[in-house]
Amino acid sequence: MTATVTEGRTERLERVSAATRTFMSRHAAMTPTFAALVILALLLVGAEASLRGDFVTPRTISSLLLDNAYLLILAVGMTFVILTGGIDLSVGSVMAFTGILGAQLLGSGVPAWLAVTVMLAGGSAIGLLIGVLVQYFDVQPFIASLAGLFLARGLAFVVSLSSIRVEDTGVLWLQQNRIRLGDWYITPTGILALVVVALAAFTLHLTRFGRTVYAIGGNEQSARLMGLDVARTKVAVYVISGFCGGLAGLVLTAYSGAGYPRNGIGTELDAIAAVVIGGTLLTGGRGYVLGTLVGVAVFGTIKTIISFMGAEQSWMQIIVGALLLLFIVIQRAIVARAERRR
C-alpha cells in the first residue's frame, strides 16, 4: 500500500512538473515579467520583515503610485518605442520642457485647458520630429532622440532659467485631491496614470496598430512584406512617447507645484530601466505594458525602502544596475532559446 501511495504521489509530481514546463515553454516571453513579480514580492516581504510591519501599509502602497505616476506614464510611452526596437532618450527633457512651458503659460493667465493642450502638443511635436528623423532620414533612434533631448532641454531653459510656481487650482487639484477608500487613497494623477496603462494595453493587444508594433519589433522586413504600415507606425510610436512626455510634465508639475527646467535629468534612463525590468526586450517584439507597470512598482519600491532605511541614494543606482544586468541575461537566454528552435 505504501508503494502504491508513493507511486501516486510521484505520478502527480511528474504531471505538475510537465504542466509547469509546458506553461513556461508556451509563455517564455513572460519569464522576465514573472521574475519581476517575484522580485517585487520578495522586496515587499523583506521590507515588511525588516521594518517590523511598518512598510506594507495602505499609506505606503498608495504613496507608491502617487510618487511614481509621472514615471509610469513615461515608461508606458517608452514601451511602445522599445517594442519596435527603438529607443527614446528625450522623454526626461520633454517632461521638463512641457512642465516649465505649462507653468509659464499658467502664470501668464492662459486658461488651464489651453496650457495643458499646448503641453501635450509640444511633447507630441518633439516626438514627431524624432520619428520623422528615424523613419524618413534613416537616423539611428539613439542619435535622433539624443538630438530631441538637447532640443527639449534647451527650449526648457529658453522658457525660464529658474523654477516657476503654479497657483492654478485646477492643475494643483490633480495632485492635492485625494479619493479615499478606507485607509487607501488615490489622486487624480494616479488615476490618470492607470488609465494610460489601460489604454496602452488595449491598444497593443487588441488593435491592428498594436499588432503592427509587435511585428516591426519582431522583424521589420517581414512586417513590410505582410503589407503592414511600418512607416506610419514607427513615427506614431515616437509621437506617443512624446505625448506621454508632455502628460508626465503635467503630472510632475501638479506633483511639485512648479515647473523647473532641470526636472527629469536622467529620468529617461529610469523609464528604460523600468521597461526592461518589466520584461520588454530591448531588441523589440516582446513585452507587455502590464510588465512595465510591475517594473515601475519594483523601481518605486526600491526607492521607498532606501528612503525608509535612511541609506545613501547611491544604493538605488547599484541595486537597479544589478537588476538590469539580471534581466538582460534573462532576455538573452530567451532570445537564444528562440533562435535554437528556428
UniProtKB/TrEMBL annotation:
Keyword match Membrane = yes
The Gene Ontology terms for molecular function here are: transmembrane transporter activity
Q: Name one Pfam family in it.
A: BPD_transp_2
Q: Where are the transmembrane segments?
A: 69-101, 113-136, 142-164, 184-204, 235-255, 288-309, 315-335
How does this protein lie in the membrane? Multi-pass membrane protein
Top-level lineage group = Bacteria
UniProt keywords (A-Z) are: Cell membrane, Membrane, Transmembrane, Transmembrane helix
Q: Name one GO cellular component term.
A: plasma membrane
* InterPro entries in UniProt: ABC_transp_permease
The subcellular localization recorded is: Cell membrane
Q: What is this protein's name?
A: ABC transporter permease
